[in-house]
Design brief:
about 30% strand, alpha+beta, 5-stranded mixed sheet, single chain, 7 strands, two-stranded antiparallel ribbon
């Protein structure tokens, strides 16, 4: 197995999300992926991030071999319960984050589809950490993952060919005809 020195696209995406949220919301003392809300002595207010799902999208297959996926994310906006007007501040910050994500559309430097905000809602009191209040902002975005089958050819199909319906598909590959050299 070869070791790729470049970070996977997910690492770049997570770093871009963290950086963008931190830049837009500088009052967050903590903006991190994969950190538990129960962490003692965590600086607050905090925005704790997680990628919660990676679903395969069957809507878009482009023949590249890439897995078209729909990634789901969660931002947990956290404040201590003792903060003045914590409930109001928390709600306003979560809704502002959801609105900003919707209006932003994409994260810089990462090839992905558009951000789709799903919800902004208060965390269930039964699951909340003692001494903390939180709201959760959920969103998704489509992203192609994996290796492109055409990378070795420089993105160019080595030999383009054609056929006519109903004689198309793998079962009829032998009947395909090559395109002339100088086809438009």
């Amino acid at each position: 197995m070869a070791i790729d020195s470049s970070p996977p696209p997910l690492d770049a995406l997570l770093a871009a999300i963290e950086a963008a949220i931190h830049a837009r919301f500088p009052d967050f003392a903590t903006v991190e992926f994969h950190r538990e809300a129960s962490t003692e002595d965590m600086p607050t207010p905090a925005c704790l991030l997680a990628m919660t799902r990676c679903d395969r999208s069957r809507d878009n297959t482009d023949g590249s071999g890439l897995m078209q996926s729909l990634l789901r994310f969660e931002a947990r906006v956290v404040l201590p319960t003792a903060a003045p007007a914590a409930a109001l501040q928390l709600r306003n910050t979560a809704v502002e984050l959801a609105t900003w994500l919707h209006q932003r559309g994409r994260f810089p430097g990462v090839a992905s589809g558009a951000i789709d905000v799903i919800a902004a809602l208060p965390e269930d009191a039964a699951t909340a950490q003692p001494g903390l209040r939180s709201w959760i902002v959920e969103w998704s975005l489509p992203m192609a993952l994996g290796s492109n089958a055409w990378e070795e050819t420089g993105g160019v199909v080595p030999r383009a060919s054609f056929s006519f319906a109903p004689e198309i598909g793998r079962a009829h590959e032998l009947r395909y005809q090559p395109l002339p050299e100088r086809s438009p």
